[in-house]
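Propose amino acids for all 98 sites.
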């Protein structure tokens, strides 16, 4: 796992919702530029914030692959104050098979 990649760096501290949505916005741009691949998730990247604030679901997960080879899982919960941005070793089966 390459934790020194300039594109998929994850802050080493407890995150806020603002941190989370800032990172998602940046990674959305990286997907457009071809630096990241959006592998799947509970919503489209474009609809995430709207659906989150509408409270349609309790938890939202999304998966990315960086050009450096890292896989990343993001998660945000309507009732939690700490979102998740983490490196994972591999994608879940249900995401791999999409």
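Proposal:
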């Amino acid at each position: 796992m390459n934790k020194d990649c300039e594109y998929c760096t994850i802050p080493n501290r407890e995150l806020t919702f603002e941190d989370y949505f800032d990172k998602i916005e940046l990674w959305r741009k990286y997907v457009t530029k071809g630096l990241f691949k959006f592998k799947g998730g509970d919503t489209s990247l474009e609809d995430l914030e709207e659906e989150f604030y509408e409270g349609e679901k309790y938890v939202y997960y999304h998966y990315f692959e960086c050009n450096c080879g890292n896989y990343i899982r993001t998660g945000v919960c309507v009732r939690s104050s700490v979102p998740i941005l983490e490196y994972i070793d591999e994608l879940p089966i249900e995401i791999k098979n999409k």
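The mean pLDDT is 87. The helical segments are 17-33, 48-54, 93-96.
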